[in-house]
Amino acid sequence: SVDNIPGAPGVGPKTAMQLMQYYTSLEAILAAAVERHQSGENDIVGFSFAFDGIRGYYVPLRHQGTEENLDPGAAVKLLDHWLHETAPFCRIVFHNAKFDLHVLAEDGLKLSAERIDDTMIASFVLNPGERHGMDVLSAKHLGYSCLSFEDAVGELENFSCVDVERATRYAAEDAVVTMALWEKLSVDLAKEERLEKIYAELDAPLASLLFEIEDTGCCLDLKTLEKLSDQFHREVSAMEANALKVLKDEGIEVAADFNLGSTKQLAKVLFEDLKLPIIKKGKTGPSTDASVLEELSHHAFPKALLDIREVHKLLSTYIDAFPKLVSPKDGRLHTDFSQTVAITGRLSSSNPNLQNIPIRTERGRRIREAFCAPKGKRMMGIDYSQIELRILAHISEDPELIRAFREDADIHRRTAALVMGVPENAVTSDDRSAAKAINFGIIYGQTPFGLAKSLGIERNKAKKFIDDYFKTYPGIRSYMDKTLEEAQRLEKVTTLAGRVRYLPDIKSKNVMMRNFAERTAINSPIQGTAADLIKKAMLDIRREVLPQFPTVTMVLQIHDELLFEIPDDVDAPAFEQAVKVRMENPDILKDFIGEAFRVPMKADAAIGPHWGAL
User: Fold this and answer.
1) Among 592, 607, 598, which residue's Cα sits nearest to residue 193?
2) Tens of pLDDT along 258-271?
3) What average pLDDT does the chain have?
4) How many CB atoms within 10 Å of residue 402?
5) At 389, is the secondary structure helix, strand, or coil?
6) Cβ neighbourhood burial of 497 (10 Å; 0-12, 13-18, 19+)
């Protein structure tokens, strides 16, 4: 049991290294953890490992003030030799493998994706709504409380300052708990055949691909960012001056030190001077958050504030932040992708978050122009077209929606024509916009009120449009009703591939919580299937396409789009076609869902000097 850990310093580093020589069985499973400085440096301070859920071993490499360190180069060389020569077929279990792979790579140690298991990803696949930190999982599944990193380091500067005995207690525990968790979670996965397949063939192998993408990074044009910073700062200054002019035109005088970023000062102007209605209150008074400003945006001043905040956010989050995040080693930007944050299975990114760069705005396009291909290369972007609507057509089996996609129709124009009972060539741009809003909004619980607000039309007109929409596509209504019934009965929904999303609030007495769970029940199978699809496409491209074009690199995955850097001497059209064949393959998820998609999967590609041109 794990109870054997406390107080046991383990064996000495040399004995621990020698012990590895005995584990030559092809059935061996190794749990490993890597400790680093935790101060922005990736140098390995030490590494730990365990062959069971009882005893762990720690090898110190860079602890300060001790003679117990092994030579880092010799130790890593021995570890590399053992992993690749002595026991080349053993499985290696990590908790958050991608992190450890980055640290190991700093010392030149790389591991084959086929040999890696990850308890954090296993936990996510089993129940994506949980927290997946080791401490939480250990308490839940093992009844064991881990020594936290904060308690291990205490007041010291970083992990290299921790004495070896205490470091052994912390690090060896990491490996033992990882192994004990794997013994539990792998059994749980084996009980769920479809989840085990998702883990083994999608999520686990994707971790090593994301490591490669993160390690490659993407090229940034810092001069473009510098120009953008200057332009955006000038824009926001002009916008702030205009906002103050709006107040002056309303006869409102503000002090010279008036701060548009001050909630207290803004609340006075909005609700006392302009006498706009208070939408909601916080602990310190009336709220001035974005949702409130949206409600009040019929007035010029709140509308101006929204625009100002958007530009400030783009500056602080991206334009002025990117240059500081560029790696001094290779001059490239390296984001961090997470597989265990978005419950639907979608990837998220952080440091920086590239998923939230505005897609359809001019300002967003200008930011994407800074993501460029380096000299001698071009950038190619390829993304799925209307993927969630196509999945909805497959799931709902609605004949009209299926026919529209099979005929490669303009789906929004076709929807408007069918709903309004007019020829497609008679559909106006406003009609198409309304159809587009409901096509994309229906799976997110679009209501007559929401549609009326987004289109600026009366609620009864919006209600009629939605009612007529369901008459046009009765299969969608049937899908929604059936899904809600099953969700209420089972308190969960699944993607086509079998990925689970639990819905504990589907029977809640709290109306808001229950309504949210119901909307989640409708859209999660669609969003989750889209996530499974892009993951499978990435893995297929890595396995079947990139070996044919070894100098091409996958540099980003954003929503349903993949970005590649292509050297000028590579046949770009041939590469594009090879990628499209994999992404548009109707059988792409057949091994998971048992059938081909009923509608064609369509991927659009473009090649240019930077992301903004794609």
Assistant:
1) 592
2) 899 888 999 999 99
3) 89
4) 17
5) helix
6) buried
Please, which residues have CB within 8 angstroms of residue 608's CB and are 6 or more apart in sequence? 378, 379, 614
Pair of tokens at residue 577: 């076609």
Cβ neighbours for 590, distance < 8 A, ≥ 6 positions apart: 596
Distance CA(120)–CA(66), nearest Å, equals 33
Q: What is the DSSP letter of 456?
A: T
Burial class, 265, CB count within 10 angstroms (exposed 0-12 / middle 13-18 / buried 19+): middle
Q: Are strands 377-384 and 603-608 parallel, antiparallel or unpaired?
A: antiparallel
- For residue range 475-515, what is the model confidence (pLDDT) as tens digits? 999 999 999 999 999 999 999 999 999 999 999 999 999 99
Determine the residue type at 2: V
In the chain, what is the greatest distance between 2 CA atoms, to the nearest angstrom? 84
For the whole model, what pTM was predicted?
0.90
Output the CA angle 155-160-166, nearest 5 degrees.
70
Q: Which amino acid is at 435?
A: A
DSSP-based three-state secondary structure for 192: coil
User: How buried is residue 169: exposed, middle or buried, by Cβ count under 10 Å (0-12/13-18/19+)?
Assistant: buried
Q: Which two tokens stand for residue 461?
A: 């007109």
Token duo for residue 221? 């044009």
| Structure confidence at residue 27 (pLDDT) | 43
